[in-house]
Amino acid sequence: MDKLRNNWFTESCEMWPGSTFSFEVKEVLHSEKSQYQDIDVYDTASLGRVLVLDGIIQCTQKDEFSYQEMISFLPLCCHRNPEKVLIVGGGDGGVAREVEIDAKVIEVSKKYLPFMAVGFESKKLTLHVGDGFEFMKNHSQEFDVIITDSSDPVGPAISLFQENYFALMKSALRPGGMVCSQAGTIWNDLELVTNTLSFCRNQFPSAAYGYASVPTYPSGQIGFVIGSLEENKKFDSPLLTFNKEDEQTMNLRYYNSD
């Protein structure tokens, strides 16, 4: 079935029945079906370039920074000394990810989303293409922080929202380690948020839920669950804070220490 109608793309999903989000497409930059999912990249009239996987918007050039900054700095600024970080999930490069199951997403992002894929150029990055589950099974007690930058729980990402995944992350952490995972929004799927937070709390002595504004995501928000192996962790009091000069130097556009 044609994905566009009169040059408009419309996102719809069983996870948010009765709601859609549409944007006008100037050009289809890329469209293919990989081993795992449909991958589309559009140049749009109002959002810049947009990455869509299995018909669901993953990121847009206009607002990707709010999600990327929050899922990264929420755990990194709360950890005492995050020397080794594992990033599991999509391959757009916005969080300088380390393990990605679909090599095609990485390839497409490097070509069409250079404003995000710049993360792949970091000398600190070691990229692994494969299954995040299998990777962590072979890396016990190795990481200070694990960030799961996943798509919604549809298709290959479903397993990243189960309790056994949180248990596996726990086993891959060093003492005092932390995790942060995409966890949906209360406005569209309160059950998903409740269950994901519960799974995190069952595995970590400290856990919480936070959210960020992302206009092109369902309901205009996206949430995160964050867990720590430390008891009584105060996630709203970061150990590392940024002043205005730091924010400008790092080109932060959404996250701040407040």
Describe this structure in words.
- α5 (163-172) runs parallel beside α6.
- Strands 1-2-3-4-5-6 form a six-stranded antiparallel beta sheet, covered by helices on one side. A five-stranded mixed beta sheet has the order 7-10-11-13-12, with helices on both faces.
- The protein is of the alpha+beta class.
- It folds into two domains: 4-60, Roll (Spermidine Synthase, Chain: A, domain 2), CATH 2.30.140.10; 64-249, Rossmann fold, CATH 3.40.50.
- Helix content is 24%, strand content 31%.
- It has helices spanning 64-76, 103-112, 114-117, 132-137, 163-172, 190-203, 244-249; strands spanning 4-5, 8-11, 21-33, 38-44, 49-53, 56-60, 85-89, 99-100, 128-129, 143-149, 173-184, 206-213, 221-228.
- The longest helix is centred in the C-terminal third of the chain and has 14 residues, at 190-203.
The assigned structural class equals alpha+beta
Helix fraction, binned, reads 10-25%
CATH architecture of the largest domain: 3-Layer(aba) Sandwich
How many domains? The number is 2
H/E series: EEEEEEHEEHHEHEHEHEEH
Largest sheet: 6 strands, antiparallel
CATH superfamily of the largest domain: Vaccinia Virus protein VP39
State the CATH topology of the largest domain: Rossmann fold
Low-confidence blocks of residues:
none
Question: What is the beta-strand fraction?
Answer: 25-35%
* Number of contiguous helices: 7
Alpha-carbon Rg, integer: 18 Å
The number of distinct β-strands equals 13
Q: How would the global form be characterised?
A: globular
Biggest sheet: strands side by side, in what order?
1-2-3-4-5-6
CATH class designation of the largest domain: Alpha Beta
Distance between the termini: 46 Å
- Mean pLDDT, all residues: 87
